[in-house]
Amino acid sequence: MPKRPSPPAFHVMVKPRGPICNLDCEYCYFLSKERLYPDSDFRMSVTLLEEYTRQYIEAQRVPEVTFAWQGGEPTLMGLDFFRRAVGYQQKHKKPGMRVTNALQTNGTLIDDEWAAFFRDNGFLIGVSIDGPPHLHDAYRRDKGGRPTFERVLRGVEALKRHRVEFNVLTCVNAANAPYPLEVYRFLRDEIGAQFIQFIPIVERDNDTGFQEGSAVTARTVTGEQYGRFLTGVFDEWVRRDVGRVFVQIFDVALAAWSGQRPGLCVFEETCGLALAMEHNGDVYSCDHFVEPRHKLGNMNVIPLADLVASDQQRQFGLDKRDTLPRMCRECEVRFVCNGGCPKNRLLTTPDGEPGLNFLCAGYKAFFTHIDRPMQFMAAELRAGRPPANIMLALAREEAERARRFANVGRNDPCPCGSGRKYKNCCGSPARRH
Ligand code: SF4
Ligand code: SF4
Fold this sequence. Notes:
Blueprint: E1 11-14, H1 46-59, E2 64-69, H2 79-92, E3 98-105, H3 112-120, E4 123-128, H4 133-136, H5 149-161, E5 166-172, H6 180-191, E6 195-200, H7 223-240, E7 246-247, H8 248-257, E8 274-277, E9 282-284, E10 295-298, H9 304-308, H10 311-322, H11 326-329, H12 334-337, E11 347-348, E12 354-356, H13 360-369, H14 371-382, H15 389-405, H16 429-432
Parallel strand pairs: 1-2, 1-8, 2-3, 3-4, 4-5, 5-6, 6-7
Antiparallel strand pairs: 8-9, 9-10, 11-12
Helix pairs in contact: 1-2, 3-5, 7-13, 8-14
The chain binds iron/sulfur cluster (SF4) (2 copies).
C-alpha cells in the first residue's frame, strides 16, 4: 500500500525534560507522567535533539517552522541545551526557511542570562500566571508547598528588561474563576500582558492520570463558571482593549465569525496536528493524551513524518468530529465551538448520548453572549475597517441608552420597549443589581 503523505505542517510539543518540574502545581496534568518512564533520567540527549531537529524541519513543507518547548519545566535542561538546539536549527534549516521557537515556562528560573538568550534568538515565551498573588498561589506551589508568585514575577521582570516577547497563560480554575475582572485587569495593568490565553482546568479525578472516568477534582472549573469568567473579561475588553490586548479565545471567535478557521485545535472541526514528544523520542497523539494507547511510536524507529501521517493519528484527529453527539451537531454555536477538546468530553447529553463537553454550558452562554459584537467586528473586518471600531459603537449606544433612561419615572413605560412599567422591568431592584 502506498504511504500516505504527511500533512504540509504540524506542531510537536517537545518535552526535553519529560514531566520533571521544579514546582508542584496541584492541577498539573503532566507530573503524573513520570510513572510512564520508571528509572529514566528524563533528559533528552543531544543526539536525539539533532535528529529531531533534522526530521522536524525536513517534514515541514511551509516557509516557517516553530519549535515548541514544554514540560514539565523545559528550562531545567539548562541554557546549553537550547544553545545547541538553535545551532542545530541553523544547521538543518532549508534555504529561505524561517525558524522560530516558543517555550512555555513557569517563569521561576528565568534570570538575565536566560532572558538575554531568548531575546537574541527571538524566542516567544509563554509564562503561566493565574492572576494576582492570592489567586495565583492557590494551586501554583513548589515542592515544599510554598507560594511561587514572587519568583514568577522576577522572571517576568527579567523578560521585560530584555524586551523578550511573551504571552501569559492563565489556567481558569475553581479558585480564580469567580474573579474575571480582577484576573484580567491584573494581567493587563500589573503584568503588562498583551497576549493572554485562558485555559480551563478540567482535571479528571482518578489514579491513572489518564483521560478516563467522568469524576473531576474540586479544582476543576465548571462550565457555568467558565462561561461567566469569559463573559466578564469580554465585556471589559470589548469596551476598552480591542486591538490593544489580544485574548486568544476572542481572536478565535472573531476568526469563526469571519468565516475563517479558528486556528486553535480545541475549536477546529478535526484535530491531530498538534502532537507531543517525550524526552526519549516517544511521540503521542497530543499533549493531553500522553498515555500508552495514544503512543504512535518512537521517532528513532519510525520517522516523525510517518508517525504524523499514520492511520492511528489520522483517526485520532477525525474522531474529534465523528464522535460529536447530535446535540453538538445541531447546536447554533457549533461553527465556533465544534464540541471543544475531546479530553473534556466527559458528559452525556440530556438524551443520553456520550461525548458532551464538560464546559458546554459555558461555551454556549459565552458564544451566544458575544454574537452581536462579533457580528459587528466581523463586518468591520470585511469592510476593511478595524474591528476596534466596536468600542466607539458601544460607547455611543450606551450613552444613548443612559440618555433615554435619565428622567424615567418608576411608573413610566420602560424605555427598553418591553411594554412593562419601568419599575417592573429595567428599573426593578433585581435588574439594577
Ligand atoms: S485532543 Fe484537544 S488539545 Fe489535543 S489536539 Fe485535539 S483538540 Fe487539541
Ligand atoms: S456549545 Fe455545547 S452543544 Fe454547542 S457545540 Fe459546544 S459543546 Fe456542543
